[in-house]
Every structure is written in C-alpha cells, then in structure tokens.
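Quick start: read one record
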Amino acid sequence: MTIKPTIGVAGCGEMGLPMAKNLLQSGFNVYGYDVRPAEEFGNFADRMLETARALAAKCPVVISVVRDWPQTEELCFGSDGLFAGDSYPETLVISSTLSPKMITNLRKAVPAGTQLIDAPMSGAPFRAEEGTLTFMLGGEPDVISTAMPAFNAMGNEINYLGPLGQGMMCKVLNNMLAASSVVAVREILNAADALGFPRDRLLEVASSSSGGTWFGDNLDKISWAKEGYSMINTIGILEKDVNALIDTTADFPELRINEFARSVIAELRNLPEE
C-alpha cells in the first residue's frame, strides 16, 4: 500500500480550495494556507494554518496557487514564508501562472534539496470542483512520477511537457489563446445583440461549428464570464497572464505575437461588466 504524503495548498481561493478538497477526498492528508482568516473556509477551516512557515513544517509537498510572482516571492521568502524556518518542503509545485523566466529564477533561489515542479492548471472553478482540471507539467521525470497521484486527484488531463519551465511555457501560450477568445466571444455576443440575433442560439450553433471555443462553449458554467475588467478579478488575471507571455517573448521582438498581445490587453481593459 502506497503511503500518500501530507500536502499543503497555499492560496485557497476559487481554484486552490476545491483542489485541496479533492486531494482530501482522495485520501491525502491536506492542510491549507491563505492570507484570509480560517473562518472563511467553512468545513475546511480546521485544516487552515496561520503561516506559510507552518505549512512547510507540516507538509513535505506544497502546491502554490497564489496569484502572481510578487505573491509567490512573499509565500516563499517572506518573514513567515515556506523557506523562513528550519523545515523546507521536499517538493514545491507551482500551479500559479507565471513567466517561465520566473520559474528559472525560483529554481536558483530555493534550496537545492527542494524539488521543483511547474504545474500550471487550466479550467475554471467549476472544473476545479469537479476534479477535472488540465495540468501542464515541467520538471524531472522521477519527481513528476512521484507526484502523479496528486495530480490525478485534481485533474483528468495531465500533460508532462519536459524539463522545468516547459509546463509554464505551454500555459502562457495557452492563456494567450484563452484571453483572445474571451475578447472575441464577448465582442461577437455584443454584436449579435445589436443585430437582433439570439446569443444563445449563436453559441449553440458555434459549439459544433468553426466558431466553437472553450469560453463560448462553457459560458454558463464560468463564474467570471460576465465580469468587466478589474485588476483584482479574473479578467485582470488574464491580463497578468498575457503580460507573462510578453515577458517570455521579450527576447524575440520580431514576433508579431507581441503586438497582438498588447492589443488583447487593451481589449481586456475595455470589457464592461454584463
């Protein structure tokens, strides 16, 4: 019988909390950490720890689902961070969407004894709750293999893409596709409204036609589908993810994707709440 490691989930928001609950349901011993008070986490409250340092002391495997690079730095190297105490995680899994360059920086900064996996996920809160996320993995094959039962508890499409950083490379490219389709679908639906064509019928036909997209096909399931732009909501996170691609392609100024990415950011910032 394989003994499942204790896993900590840092960043128990709309994605992290259901991920933690699915791990718990699959037989892992799970604890969480978040900047919000424990009482906000319902029946998971008794598993929430007060600091990232405490999470590292209790959990040999930590999955980070915090928002961005500044929060990742604080989580890891803050005064009460994962690496502030005497006990370090044996394996650190980065499931936030960051520039691949930041994964390289993180590998240099964390202790050599900590194995690092970049494992950004794709989906939405409803897929995190269902345990059907798509993961894009980069790292050493033996480390990935050991962690695979945990990924299988949280997702149903697990893609090993190569050495450290390749998972994040795939994710920033994927999220550029996602961000551009969000803009396109929202603008096309507005056009349909103006033209008097029922948007539901358009999406129904598009789902089995060339205009089908993940965003359009799942519009009613995506909790943030009608959000307007804000730096702190999911549309703002999409902007952050597009900027991660721009950082990734900074050494290739001749690529047309750079100009396109900036235009997508401008359109995201113009999205109104519906």
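The chain has a mean pLDDT of 96.
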